[in-house]
Design goal:
Elements (H helix, E strand, L loop, with lengths): L1 H24 L25 H6 L4 E2 L2 E2 L1 H41 L1 H6 L1
Antiparallel strand pairs: 1-2
Amino acid sequence: MVMFLFLVVALAVVVAAVTLAVVSGGERGPLPEAAPERLRDPLPPDRPVAGQDVENLRFPLAPRGYRMSDVDDALGRLAAELAERDARIADLESALAGARAAAHARLDKPGQEEQR
């Protein structure tokens, strides 16, 4: 019986404490949002990403692993830069192929230049 009374009194104290906290805390409003932990080593915004930048990249841990938005941002940036580099390489390779073809055409027909 003593244990039952102790539990009832303890429950009443907990209910009173929670009620007091809710009632008195409502005047000030909710607590401000805490700033989320962000990347400690972000990718450089002012130059292309280098291999060392990717090796140094560390994502902050979240309750269920990594923050998906941070990982998505980093992967999106890397994908965009790789696509840009691939396009640049393709342009340079086509320009080189055109220059080689023009050089071969001039070497194959030396008589035409001499006639001019």
